[in-house]
Amino acid sequence: MSVPAEPRSSGNPRTDVFDVRAEIDAGGWSRLAKATLALTALAVVLDGFDIQVIGFSIGPMAKDFGSTKEALSWVVALGYIGIGLGAGAGGYVGDRIGRKNTMLIAVATFAVFTLLTAFAPNLVLIGLFRTLAGLGLGMVFPVVAALVAELTPLRRRGFAVALALVCLPAGAMLGGVVAAAVLPSMGWRFLFVLGGVAPLLLGVAMRFVLPESPQFQAARGTERDITGALTTLRRMGHDVGPTTVFAKRNEVERASFAALLSPDHRRDTIGLWIAFFFSLMGVYAFLSWGPTLLTAAGFSVAVSSLGVSVFHSGGILFAIAGGWLLVRYGSRVVLTTYALGTAVVGAWLFAVQPAAESPLPLVFAQLFLYGGCLSGLQVVLFSLAAHAYPVTIRATGVGAAGSIGRFGAILAAFVGVVLVSAGGGWFYVLVITVGVLAAVALTMIRRHTPATAARSTLLEPAAVPR
């Protein structure tokens, strides 16, 4: 069992046992942690930009290669498959070689293969490059969640993780704005040049500014790791010196996917997987088929596009609010409210289905709450996943949940088209179902984030017994 070090107000660097997690939780939100949040949030923005750019490029790309948009759907699918695989791989690698190194690999991977897409001479290479870029894109989320969580005190953690990851829809919206400005004059290839060069520059900044997680380094415990952890902790304002000894927590010695399903973590893992699967299925069902659903209901293309932006706006605002509310009320209350809210909004959409004769403020209110509850749920789930596992399997746990969720997103492409084609409001039945099943899954999870920072580390996830 770890021995929390008592705070010191002055004097020489401490020589007692130093509990890294407890001290970070009890300390202030350091400038280094905020700088890390800013850099990783930029990576997530570029992640969202890259994912959205392919959607805007399909039309002109198909024209250039003498194909059809429908025939190029496999290019989009390959990218999503790469993202799903990358999420699991990124988490596992992050727990093996560290958060910073994995982040640099992830950013470099999606930067290089996005840039290569701009110069691809045929569709086969575009499909290959999009798959490999997807691997890098998928690796970003679990590493960001783990690194931001491990540098941020408990009372700010949920908000910080949500603030970083909510930048994905913000990046997607940025991609839409840039595409509208660039495509007519510069063409689709220039979009991929931008999407490749920007993360390469960000990767250089990360190389010199981004710290490694001191919690990860203390847990791994090599001489080099201990030195690095001490350096980072001093940068964060903690009173440590060469004689400081780190507390040892009773945690898994080595990251593995099997540890996620150990008796101590099985229930939380299954609950998270179900919640991630259905929340991402609901989000991507609308992102894939929402515009088609709205145009089929009689709305113009312009109004349908605006409706998608309203959906994104709701997700951004609700995710930020959810991260803040997590501190006050805990994840069980906040996430269950969002999940049940999704079901209620789905029932409202089924009862009062958007149609061309519907007042636009009403339709936009429905879409805002739909995106808010569902996208907000999906983003804030990452904060819970980052809390539910000990440091040695944290990135693996977040990555595995994200990977399962991505396969829900892939399934959404097939389920969505069936429900949209069926008409009669069947698409909104999916929304109701997603909300209810996510709420049920949340009841399975034992290690929810605590309601207040005052409850601190006593309510943090218990370690896996050796």
Can you describe this structure?
With 466 residues, this protein is mainly α. It has two domains: 1-250, MFS general substrate transporter like domains (Growth Hormone, Chain: A), CATH 1.20.1250; 255-456, Up-down Bundle (Growth Hormone, Chain: A). Helix content is 75%, strand content 1%. The chain has helices spanning 20-26, 31-64, 73-97, 99-117, 123-151, 154-165, 167-186, 188-209, 214-220, 223-235, 257-260, 266-296, 301-351, 360-388, 394-422, 426-444; strands at 17-18, 245-246. It has a two-stranded parallel ribbon. Helix 2 packs antiparallel against helix 5, helix 2 packs parallel to helix 7 and helix 4 (99-117) packs antiparallel against helix 8 (188-209). The longest helix has 51 residues, at 301-351. It starts with 16 loop residues before the first strand and ends in a 22-residue tail after the last helix. The relative contact order is 0.15. Mean pLDDT is 84; it is low at 1-14 and 453-466.
